[in-house]
Amino acid sequence: MTGKLDNWIAGVSVAPAGGRYEQATNPGTGGPSALVASGGAEDIAAAVAAAKIAAAGWKRYPSAKRGRLLHALATAIRASADKFADLEIEDTGKPLAVALAEIENSAAYFEFYSGLVNLPIGETLDVEPNHHIFTRREPFGVVGIITPWNVPLNQAARACAPAFASGNVVVAKPAETSSQTTVLLAKLATEVGFPDGVFNVVLGRGSVVGTAIVSHPDVRKVAFTGSVETGRLIGHIAAERLIPLTLELGGKSANMVFADADLEFAATEAVRAFSGNAGQVCSAGTRLLVQREIHDEFLARVVEVASRIRPGADMGPLITRTQFDQVKEYFELAAAEGAKLELGGSDVVYPELDGAFYVAPTIYSGVDNGMRIAREEIFGPVLVTIPFDTEEEAIAIANDSDFGLIAGLFTKDISRALRVSDAIEAGQVFINSWSTGAVQTPFGGHKNSGYGREKGIEALHHYTHVKTVVVVY
Ligand code: NAD
To answer: What residues form the catalytic site here (predicted)?
Structure first.
């Protein structure tokens, strides 16, 4: 696009009330991306007012018709894949194949939830004679959806699709660095027939627009995906307002490889786990726990696989100069903490990608789980390896983290795999593959990784609340 990007309110493009815009940067070139509206509380007030007007009609909208609209949006996303890809690449610099996979996944969310519009169902409760008691699941009304920059369209689709399917209307705020695809999604929703006001997008800074969404008295639920720090700020406001929250926050996920695993496959998966989307993934597998007897051999395999990644072709850049500088600070920290650099690090520069925010896949060994590089989310393609001797030790190290988003384990012993998965404090455990699962699989965290669940049928419970109706006859 590389043009002006405005809010989308009540089915039309609307300039920000204050007339302010901010220039976004293409991290793949260091050049300009879109000139993005920088909205304020007035824009949120307008969007929430439009959403509120639409809410009553959307709640009563015939469910089959609502399902058809969601399905039509899935089809429209696929038909516009090239356009989405251009915008996503401009905003995030990711390679085309990665962008296209994200877009397909985004369509899959709308497709999946289009078939589940009747699923938020209630129960009939037989309590005593002459009583007919039933429950129904109802939408909250206006839902605020705040998303980060790493997989912008995917994050918007993941939260919006179940919100719409269960009868809510949405005011969404994408990250200011990567807003274009969320606006296009809302435009397409209008084009395929979503009633005006059901899907609104307001652009701008998190501290301004994000805060205004969470604070608005007519916003009845918020789904937030982003950092722990922002999650806490939002949590305070939501606690004050007593509104429900879904918080999808960070991670420092452990990937455990036992000596009996298929080491060739596990090495490929271990690399995919930490380097996908240049490590800018909440569920990245950034702590590789390896049974001591195979540690050195396995590390060599992982280093070999990772050294074949070509930044620019296989792996995109980091999103901003700030993120780039932050990851480089972790390289200095790793050295100061005494970790052994096995691959990458700050000495690797890419002259052909000059001006863009690329870092090399980076691997450290000699790491203790107490070091900051093993405890903090770096959000770059940085892996630490930690040896362990026993199953119990692997579990203890994996769980010794402030986070609990996902975990992986590789072993041919199914009993051990199930024992370890029982003991792991994480919302998802992947055995003999590193995957973040399909759109059908519930997703969310323990501990600082957040609460509530997105994806799957489970998400519909988080976008509805239960009403009990008692009839005495
Ligand atoms: P961030 O918290 O800085 O920003 C996320 C969103 O919140 C953006 O839209 C931002 O503008 C907005 N925001 C910022 N300050 C705000 C405030 N005070 N009030 C309301 N909204 C505000 O996070 P980020 O740097 O964009 O994203 C990276 C983080 O997101 C990482 O920690 C990553 O682990 C996490 N993440 C989690 C998941 C998940 O599903 N668990 C997925 C992707 C990313």
So the answer is: 248
